[in-house]
Amino acid sequence: MSSKFPGFQPADLPETVRVAIVAARFNAEVTDELLAGCMRRLDELGIDGSRVEIHRVPGAFELPVAAKMLARTKRFGSVVCLACIIRGDTPHFDYVAGEAARGIQQVALEESLPVIFGVLTVNTEQQAKERVGGKHGHYGERAADAAAEMMALMTRIKR
């Protein structure tokens, strides 16, 4: 698995762009760190807190409906979905992870809006921690980078 992520420079990012973040409350220790990393990176990219709106949902399964509602407002250049799903002893993981991914992608395609899949799908809590500032980087920051890069791309395409 590669831990090297492509860098992004926000040259084409509109100064007025707004971002919505939907974060699950389930597995809060990890999800809260995903949110903190995402917010930190958005700020570094020049998207300060006044242009970011945060909404919480119970779990990853609820991300798509919240993303859809936010996308329909037309107030945001991107919606970032954050959650952590840790495999258990039942097939529940497969259903939740698969449907969250499918639903988030469906919203993006239907709304022609970058809806970012910042959902960790891991086997253990240790793997999750390694992806929020550990040896595999910080996936909250990566979600912010993806949102910014896609918003810049959408701006270039619309010109």
Could you explain how this protein is built, in words?
This protein is of the alpha/beta class and 159 residues long. It has 5 helices and 6 strands.
Which segments are poorly predicted (pLDDT under 50) over 5 or more consecutive residues?
A: none
Helix percentage range: 40-55%
User: What fraction of the residues are assigned to beta strands by DSSP?
Assistant: 15-25%
Question: Secondary-structure element order, as H and E?
Answer: EHEHEHEHEEH
Features:
two-stranded antiparallel ribbon; alpha/beta; 46% helix; 5 helices; 159 residues; globular; four-stranded parallel beta sheet
List the helices and strands and how they pair.
Layout lengths: L18 E6 L3 H17 L7 E6 L5 H10 L5 E9 L5 H20 L3 E8 L2 H6 L1 E3 L2 E2 H20 L1
Parallel strand pairs: 1-2, 1-3, 3-4
Antiparallel strand pairs: 5-6
Helix pairs in contact: 1-5, 2-3
Concise overview:
The chain is α/β, with parallel strands linked by helices and 159 residues long. The protein is 46% helix and 21% strand.
